[in-house]
Sequence to fold (167 residues):
Amino acid sequence: MKRITLATLVSAAAVAIALPIAAQAAPHGGHHGGDHMKAMDTNGDGDVSKEEKAAFRTAMFNEADTNKDGSLSQAEMTAHHAAKEAARKAERQAKMFSALDADGDGSVSAEEFANPPMRGRMAKFDTDGDGTLSDAEREAAKAARHERRGKWHERRGDKPAPPPEAE
Fold:
């Protein structure tokens, strides 16, 4: 019984430590984006000191420790992660809705839904500005994606990603 309890505690601790680290190490800042690092950089100097990181982690711990007993249970950690993910999802949905609501009237008409504006990456790769992506524009986007992935792998010390194959 003691072995199972110990194994469970060790596993929970490993997950608790690994998730934030993995999120920070993931490309593009993981699911937190740059906001996670910005939140830690409390003095805004662009660097995160050991003290800033410790303060941030303490605040995160205190937020997750809902019963304020000084330790995190698996249930508290699961609830904390679920709440954070729900907040991120709600934010993404609000942004998507806002993007579709072209006239800003607080509702999305059938016309707005059927004809969303081209934004972000799609607009970036629509080099001729005609509102559609041609085969050549899609290939250029694919090549750019492969180049970005290759640079990321090189920074990590991995082998560079293979170049896109000609079709």
Summary: Confidence is low (pLDDT under 50) at residues 18-31. The CA atoms of residues 150 and 161 lie 5 Å apart. The helical segments are 2-25, 35-40, 50-64, 74-100, 110-114, 120-125, 135-156.
